[in-house]
DNA sequence: CATATTTAAGACTATTTATTCCTAATTAAG
DNA sequence: CTTAATTAGGAATAAATAGTCTTAAATATG
């Protein structure tokens, strides 16, 4: 069950890095993130550009430039991140994708698919980046090997 | 959240058609299924060929040939179908896909991702094709428009 | 046996997603 | 002003997924 595209996976990991290891200065460079996580610098740059466009990040060019969260990590819920990375319709997708769905009668698997989606959405909307960053810092969980 | 590939979606729908509208004779032709559901005949054929190879279906060539379930619909759980269509590792996939995962410490989202997966897996393993077929027949749910 | 029907097999094409690469714009610092 | 560092933008390439098409094999029927 592929929950996230590569964009989603890399984007999330890179963001979590930023949250978990905030720089001394105002901005953290993409190069440092991608190098540390072993991700493609160009790919991460592309992903972050979109997050910047969507207002989740702010960026600054030039020496000692980089990216930073647009608001405190406490106020950014995983849900917002996922939607930014995967599209706002992320939780609207259906399991078997019937034409004209959502209308009249549901398909055979609608009920528990909805349950599962709702649960995940709920979890995501309750989890802040700050919390995850803290877990990473205390090494309760890990971001790489 | 894309849960199933096109192969998975079409395959499941086509299978459910077979279960819900079993033929008078022993086999149901792929042509009838694909025409009725508005799916590509060739694509469905391709998908079914794999299900046949995996022992979920049996096929028979020639006039009044077609495909049939290899065992009673009561004994086929959705889980088996999904795994056949999407690969046995379907429920092993992880959310952010860290290298060497499952080993030492989990990543930040492992816990609730596991919950969700377990729930879905459980639902799937409790739901038989027979049950879904019955729901379709009684029009409690629908397979197409 | 001849023909029509149906699945099997796999090549081929198209579309989407993933990834890399090149060039421009911005800015700090000497 | 020059240079180096950094993100911005978008083109180009690669890989994976989706979908089509052609030919072969099997089988029923007359
Ligand atoms: S009923 Fe629900 S799961 Fe089924 S096709 Fe519609 S939206 Fe998707
Ligand atoms: S800890 Fe779990 S969710 Fe996180 S990368 Fe590993 S398997 Fe995936």
TrEMBL record, chains A, B:
Membrane spanning residue stretches: none
Gene Ontology cellular component terms for the protein in this record: cytosol
Pfam families recorded: Rrf2
Gene3D superfamilies recorded: Winged helix-like DNA-binding domain superfamily/Winged helix DNA-binding domain (1.10.10.10)
InterPro entries (UniProt xref): TR_Rrf2-type_CS (IPR030489), Tscrpt_reg_Rrf2 (IPR000944), WH-like_DNA-bd_sf (IPR036388), WH_DNA-bd_sf (IPR036390)
PROSITE patterns: HTH_RRF2_1, HTH_RRF2_2
Molecular function terms, GO-annotated: DNA-binding transcription factor activity
NCBIfam families, per database record: rrf2_super (TIGR00738)
PANTHER family: HTH-TYPE TRANSCRIPTIONAL REGULATOR YWGB-RELATED, WINGED HELIX-TURN-HELIX TRANSCRIPTIONAL REGULATOR, RRF2 FAMILY
Protein name as catalogued: BadM/Rrf2 family transcriptional regulator
Species of the source: Algoriphagus aquaeductus
Lineage: Bacteria, Pseudomonadati, Bacteroidota, Cytophagia, Cytophagales
């Amino acid at each position: 069950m592929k929950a996230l595209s590569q964009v989603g996976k890399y984007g999330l990991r890179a963001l979590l890095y930023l949250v978990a290891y905030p720089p001394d200065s105002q901005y953290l460079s993409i190069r440092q993130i991608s190098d540390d996580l072993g991700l493609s610098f160009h790919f991460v740059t592309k992903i972050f550009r979109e997050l910047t466009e969507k207002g989740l990040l702010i960026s600054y060019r030039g020496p000692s430039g980089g990216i930073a969260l647009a608001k405190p990590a406490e106020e950014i819920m995983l849900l917002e991140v996922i939607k930014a990375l995967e599209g706002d319709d992320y939780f609207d997708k259906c399991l078997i994708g019937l034409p004209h769905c959502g209308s009249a009668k549901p398909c055979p698997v609608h009920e528990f698919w909805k349950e599962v989606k709702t649960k995940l959405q709920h979890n995501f909307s309750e989890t802040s980046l700050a919390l995850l960053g803290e877990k990473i810092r205390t090494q309760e969980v890990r971001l790489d090997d």
